[in-house]
Structures are given as structure tokens and as C-alpha cells.
Here is the input.
Amino acid sequence: MEYINAFILVGLISMIGQIILDNTKLTPGHITSLFVIIGSILSFFNIYDYLINYSYIGSSIPITSFGNLLYKSCLDGYTNQGIIGLFTNMYKTTSAGISSAIIFSFIVTLFFKPKD
Here is the structure.
């Protein structure tokens, strides 16, 4: 059942993104930013915790989980270090994902060239 719930949640998020992409003039970058913000807002209202309990790993796959992690790490930094902790702790939990995305995209560009 966990796999089905994960499939449903990720499918719904992907479907919403595709509907927005098809029916608006927003670019994929805009939609990605929008979903990060939505993930942060859902985390602020503790709704994202219910999504995690519903689909376990399925809620950590979409880009909305990045907003959730940013919010959680900023909140943790604020509670431990005050206002400075907002900035110093922001990328603590997401730095491995960001670094790996940069490194792997560099490796892919060594083997493939973009089409004109």
C-alpha cells in the first residue's frame, strides 16, 4: 500500500505541474520555484507532515520536499541560534542534494552536447 500511496502522491504533484505548464505561460523554472514555495507553505501549516505519513518516501521525491526541508532547517536554525540561524542553517540538510545535482549535471555535460 505504501507504494501505491507514493505513486498517487507523486503522480498528483506531477499532474498538477503538467496542467500548469500546459495551460499557462509559466516556464519549468517558474513551476519548480512555485512548487518549492508550496512545499514550504505546506510545511508551515504542518500539512506536509501528513503527506509524509501518507506516502513515506513518495513525499520526499518531488520538488516540494525541497521547500519542506528548507523550512525545517531554517526553523531549526532559528530555534537554536536565533535570527542568524535562519541564514547559517538554511542549506544544512539540503547541501548534499544540491552538490550532487551540480556535480552530476557537470558530468552529463561532458558526454552530451545541447542541440541548437
In short: The chain has six helices and no strands. The CA atoms of residues 50 and 56 lie 10 Å apart.
